[in-house]
Amino acid sequence: MTKIDLRKTQKFEDRHNGPDQQDVAEMLKVIGLPSIDALIDETVPAGIRMKEPLNLPHPKSEFQFLKDLRQIAGHNKLFKSYIGMGYYDTIVPGVIQRNILENPGWYTAYTPYQAEISQGRLEALINFQTMVMDLTGMAIANASLLDEATAAAEAMFMFSGLKKKEKKNAHTFFVDENTFPQTIDLLKTRSIPVGINLVIGKIEELDLTNEDLYGVLYQYPAGDGSVRNLKKFTETAHANNVFVTAAADLMSLALLTPPGEMGADAVVGTTQRFGVPMGYGGPHAAYFATKDEFKRQIPGRIIGVSIDSQGNKAYRMALQTREQHIRREKATSNICTAQVLLGVMAGMYGVYHGSKGIKHISLKIHGFAQLLEKGLNSLDFKQLNEAYFDTLRIEAESSVSDKIRTIAQVNEINFRYFENGDIGISVDETTRVDDIQLILDVFAEASGQVVKFDLDSEAAGLEVELPKDLERTSDFMTHPVFNQYHSEHEMLRYIKKLENKDLSLVHSMISLGSCTMKLNATAEMVPVTWPEFGGIHPFAPLDQTKGYQMLFNDLVDWLSEITGFDDVSLQPNSGAQGEYAGLMVIRAYHESRGDMQRNVAIIPTSAHGTNPASAVMAGMKVVLVACDERGNIDVEDLKLKVEQNSNELACLMVTYPSTHGVFEESIKDICQIIHLNGGQVYMDGANMNAQVGLTSPGLIGADVCHLNLHKTFCIPHGGGGPGMGPIGVRSHLAPFLPGSPVVESGGENAITAISAAPWGSASILTISYAYIAMMGAEGLTNATKLAILNANYIKAILEKEFKILYAGSKGRCAHEMIVDCRDFKAHNIEVGDIAKRLMDYGFHAPTVSFPVAGTLMIEPTESESKVELDRFCEAMLSIRQEIQEVIDGIADEADNVLINSPHTQAMVLEGQWEKPYSREKAVYPAEYVKEAKFWPTVARIDSAYGDRNLMCSCIPVSDYAPEEAVV
Ligand SMILES: *Cc1c(COP(=O)(O)O)cnc(C)c1O
Prior knowledge:
One of its GO terms (cellular component) is glycine cleavage complex. GO terms for molecular function: glycine binding; glycine dehydrogenase (decarboxylating) activity; pyridoxal phosphate binding. This is Glycine dehydrogenase (decarboxylating). It holds the Pfam family GDC-P. By secondary structure, this protein is of the alpha/beta class. 36% of the residues lie in helices and 11% in strands. The protein contains 30 helices and 26 strands. Strand 9 (303-308) and strand 10 (313-317) form a beta hairpin. The radius of gyration is 28 Å and the shape is globular. The termini are far apart. Bound molecules: pyridoxal-5'-phosphate (PLP). Residues 336-337, 514, 574-576, 608, 610, 655, 659, 684, 686, 708, 723, 725 line the site of pyridoxal-5'-phosphate.
């Protein structure tokens, strides 16, 4: 007989955390400590340890959690949305939903810095860029930004740095008032701190000869749906050295003359309606397209074509840039995590439908709008937009409008209601004849009429008319990729083919220091595609989104508890956006106290590049503070810098544990020095994975901190996004938390918007919510402890053969460590060679050269079991031996396994084998590799070559004729 406790359920913690009890015991033996708690005592300074366990609800099993969440989801009401304003219902093709959005092979990949094992998503992103370039009529596009509103702000900022000689001192940027309110609000946020004079007005009345004017932004179609031809306007603007940006609906551009053909200097917008659910605000991929001459100023990542060491075409991030724009104090943007997964989805939607399909969808959308206009005309309603794509503006008195609203609500329909009573109706890809019927019925009932319009016969033979002088005549998406994968089998195999080129967490651990590539559990991911979360418009009335509100309230409470703060804003869409939001909140706080002069941000030299970039965008002056030889902030230098700037001190930005992977013992003193001098402490929360349950930003003394939910809280990296960067604050900063111009939200003295949607990328907040709900206080704390144990275990093994930089006073690292590879340089081996050689062993490299050049930063996370850690260590030690062979002269310095890595199938199969080492050594460097070999599909990529021959769109292989091959 076996006795069991039937009340107990499977602990999710045991699935999330890699090491089991036996693993832990063996690892502790290697480290030489009796218990995990002994390790934690040696690692986390006593003075900052939490005294009490976190106060979080009892953890739920996966089964129970999903059952309960269903209930919460049921409180969201799925009304049909005609609100428009940049968010439209769309049909997510099943083949894309299941094989990309719901597929860990795609969503667990990292940002494609290691291009040789990222060719799949790089190709998918090239497709995205090409689609955007073609539709907008521009020469170059990036691989996504966070949302349309921030993309507009990036354009405003980019052009302020590109002002022509004649306009050197101009600082006015004009935005047409007929632009979405969330975009205007964001332009306000971004313009004020950097001294841009934002003017909002009617574009028809704008004086383009104004000496102070450097740029203009208009919406196309306009905010209320009307379409204008601004070709002449653009010409006049150019004659006056004024840059023109259009925020354009990409779908409309299949039918309408694209802004690029009207001369626009930049075109920005969202690709949401290309098969990405509304998700109550996101995530979606914004796009940014511009002229070739501005390619070096583009914010965000650009994917380009280059060649590999074998002379074959290969993709990689262009312009040596990775993030060309994050130039610390000289930054032109702070965008880091973007929206890769959503960009991939949108690009694939283009591949699946092709140019013909997209044109057809676009035509149907326009046709339905036309049909609806006819129907409403038959009821004597007046439609005000002379030309339109998908959005009608119906004239209505407030009394009529109110009636319509009431009846529409009964029929579960949301329209847009303008302040003057007019009604906005945006139709979309999902609109059907029945929907038009229902809308007409609502309007008929409200006006006491009956519909006499013969909808069916009108729909059967509708003659689609396009706005005169605005019809698109040029072709788009002519590349074969958009014209050959239209059957589901072809599409499925194309998606799979690309997926198979990429190494992700489904293959092996990705130990990226600072990026926390932990498990993204399936149970956490499942709710993301529930319609109750995906199908909701961000500006839907709050009484229809109670499920979301319940989830937000809990998440705010839990994150407050975890950070030791009083309130949290869920708005920022990435860590860097969180930094910016936090700094803007600090700025608002100082101003509220009359401290207008406080504009200095002190930042350690070891900080992530986004820190100074965000500070600059928030109008702050960056003062750097040095680090000592142990990787800690040099407290004497800090005191000096604070003294020199005490009157102007706005804040310190500090990462904790430091980017060097160490818990600084002096952190409390550091915070105190800042506070005594009137400053605030901003904590970069990228390293929260070493804090949760053991200490907290609040306990340490910070005032505000962002959390990268895509690092510590399980939102998958998606190949470079989505992410979420909520900020936690102490009570004195809470009144300033960002608001929204459309939905009541934020603090009582809220700063203007940081993201387009009030709760950012709301639909993926379900992931972090799931993680916390299933882990509970003890599970989260154990995760932190195991993250620290795993890192120290690797350290104990690797430090015998590699130099490990920095450690705490007891010789322990936090949750990550830095391996110094600079000594090998004397033998012609760079850190990059080690990174590439790891691919032959089936691993993705750790973080390369951050925060110290020539090093690797390893962060294993708690989700890796001992078997996986051992496999990784085996690879690293084996590589160390290969290095030794070079050092000892056994291997050739100019021709060895390291510098020739990674090795592709073609390299070992084609032609004669002429290397001084065997094929087996090249591609089967360890026994475990033979069992499941991961093959890089291209050899070492020549980035410089691609930058000299910049090419950022799909091109037939045959057209890619290298002019100056350097191989
Ligand atoms: C990842 C990271 C950031 C930037 O966060 P994003 O979400 O990519 O914008 C900032 N600081 C540190 C230390 C990071 O690791």
